């Protein structure tokens, strides 16, 4: 190993080139700081290379293939033999990732951010060492931002090194379509995988663990999602204990106990839900006296500072992360605050989206959470079946649900499933941020005909004024 004998000096050092890290670096550079970004693998992190982008590409391919079933409705013929070539989709994935990561590299260059390849660890609370093959360089910093993300590992004990046993983002690496995919989990990641592969033509079975009868969303959404999974012919086992998943010659034997008794399933592939485990072990955080939780996550303030105010942390590595949308927001806040601006992030109004059988979007309090917090609530749901544009697209499954505080009419939550639900959520996020009342939401014009009108009528319905609601 060759040790650099003098330290490079930077205003701000960012460790990790995922969405948290590169947003932090660019924002700090926009504000005039000299920044270096250290990445040990590929720029873009888990998000661009393995998870968010591949999963949404697959979801879109599934939705596109499924939309072919509607062609006849619109008088379009000749689409009966369409099918998916997974290797071509993988090729498209590689091209897309290449284009996006090259785009991020170009942005870093444009903002004169020094791009350092290597693995970083703290030497002290003002120095970081970067190791790449035989080289070891020292960097001195005024401030540092840790954005090293997490690895997604299953809760369940799984046989390792088995090509048919999958977790995390593994399904998005497959080159051949599974015949029968059995998934154990209920989070948005598992639901997206189940939906995409089912739309591709794979037989899909979903197992919800012993504690779970349903999904982690608002109850009304959960019920509609369960109905849509059944309509998609995805078999769901509720409250089920997994006994084992044993790879055999060309299949996996899955043994489980559901409320209906013990069952054995044979699948071509088995997937187990994963949880993020923080990438903190190799950082030598103790050299900078940075505290972690017992699981290794870094606690942060609303300004994204760690217990050492000159060192920030953002994204999956923190005790307040788990989604790229949070990593991006926290990254910008860290970049701004480290550059001297007054900047904070609000943990409460974070949208969750999932491209399940139909897209799903949720922000603010669920009805159950609002009641639990002591609110007296008004709720209303508007079915897409009553929306004119949903009829035009022949895509009428789903609904928009809104929750407000009874006494003040202030919006508390938005939960929707069905076409347009992800696009609509931004209006709800803004309304929640501004403490919007129902009258603020129903006053403006809404384009006609459009799915936007489902949001309008869901909110109008809270005052008993929805024209098309039943
Ligand atoms: C299948 C799947 C689908 C998902 N879909 C979505 C979605 O649709 N929307 C959403 O909001 N979230 C989604 N997520 C979550 C999302 O991927 C993460 O929240 C996001 O990637 C976190 O960003 P980050 O910048 O904190 O970390 P990462 O993206 O993990 O980036 C961290 C980077 O740091 C680098 N690094 C680590 N240690 C070091 C070191 N010592 N030195 C130098 N570099 C280092 C790593 O190589 C990596 O490139 C999904 C996750 C999965 C598994």
Provide a quick synopsis of the model.
The protein is of the alpha/beta class and 470 residues long. The chain has twelve helices and 21 strands. Helix 3 (52-67) crosses helix 4.
Please explain how this structure is put together.
This protein is an alpha/beta fold. It starts with a strand and ends in a 9-residue tail after the last helix. It is globular, with a radius of gyration of 24 Å. The protein folds into three domains: 2-149 and 279-338, FAD/NAD(P)-binding domain, CATH 3.50.50.60; 153-274, 3-Layer(bba) Sandwich (FAD/NAD(P)-binding domain); 358-463, FAD/NAD-linked reductase, C-terminal dimerisation domain (Enolase-like, domain 1, 2-Layer Sandwich), CATH 3.30.390.30. The chain has twelve helices and 21 strands. Strand 10, helix 6 (219-231) and strand 11 (235-247) form a beta-alpha-beta unit. Flavin-adenine dinucleotide (FAD) binds next to helix 1, strand 2, helix 2, helix 3 and strand 4.
């Amino acid at each position: 190993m060759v040790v650099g004998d003098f330290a490079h000096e930077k205003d701000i050092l960012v460790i990790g080139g995922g969405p948290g890290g590169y947003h932090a670096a660019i924002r700090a550079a926009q504000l005039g700081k000299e920044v270096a970004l250290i990445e040990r693998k590929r720029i873009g992190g888990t998000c661009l290379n393995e998870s968010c982008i591949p999963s949404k590409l697959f979801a879109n391919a599934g939705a596109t293939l499924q939309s072919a079933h509607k062609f006849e409705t619109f008088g379009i013929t000749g689409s009966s033999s369409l099918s998916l070539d997974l290797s071509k989709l993988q090729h498209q994935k590689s091209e897309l990732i290449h284009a996006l990561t090259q785009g991020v590299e170009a942005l870093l260059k444009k903002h004169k951010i020094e791009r350092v390849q290597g693995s970083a660890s703290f030497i002290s609370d003002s120095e970081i060492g970067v190791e790449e093959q035989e080289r070891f360089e020292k960097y001195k910093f005024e401030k540092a931002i840790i954005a090293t993300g997490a690895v997604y590992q299953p809760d369940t004990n799984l046989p390792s090194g088995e090509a048919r046993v999958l977790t995390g983002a593994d399904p998005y690496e497959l080159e051949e379509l599974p015949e029968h995919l059995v998934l154990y989990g209920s989070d948005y990641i598992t639901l997206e995988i189940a939906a995409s592969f089912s739309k591709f033509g794979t037989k899909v079975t979903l197992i919800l663990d012993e504690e779970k009868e349903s999904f982690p969303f608002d109850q009304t959404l959960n019920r509609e999602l369960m109905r849509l999974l059944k309509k998609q012919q995805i078999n769901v086992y509720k409250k089920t204990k997994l006994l084992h998943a044993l790879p055999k010659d060309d299949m996996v034997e899955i043994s489980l106990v559901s409320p209906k008794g013990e069952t054995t399933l044979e699948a071509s592939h088995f997937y187990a839900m994963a949880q993020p485990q923080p990438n903190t072990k190799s950082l030598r955080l103790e050299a900078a006296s940075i505290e972690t939780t017992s699981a290794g996550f870094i606690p942060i303030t609303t300004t994204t500072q760690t217990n050492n105010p000159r060192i920030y942390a953002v994204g999956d590595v923190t005790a307040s992360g788990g989604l790229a949308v949070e990593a991006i927001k926290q990254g910008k806040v860290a970049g701004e605050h480290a550059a001297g601006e007054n900047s904070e992030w609000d943990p409460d109004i974070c949208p969750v989206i999932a491209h399940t059988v139909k897209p799903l979007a949720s922000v603010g309090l669920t009805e159950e959470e609002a009641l639990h917090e002591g609110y007296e609530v008004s709720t209303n749901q508007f079915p897409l079946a009553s929306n004119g544009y949903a009829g035009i697209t022949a895509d009428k499954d789903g609904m928009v649900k809104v929750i407000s505080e009874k006494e003040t009419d202030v919006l508390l939550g938005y939960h929707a499933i069905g076409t347009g639900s992800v696009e609509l959520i931004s209006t709800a996020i803004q309304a929640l941020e501004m403490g919007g009342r129902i009258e603020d939401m129903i006053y403006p014009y809404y384009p006609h005909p459009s799915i936007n009108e489902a949001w309008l009528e869901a909110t109008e319905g809270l005052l008993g004024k929805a024209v098309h609601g039943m």
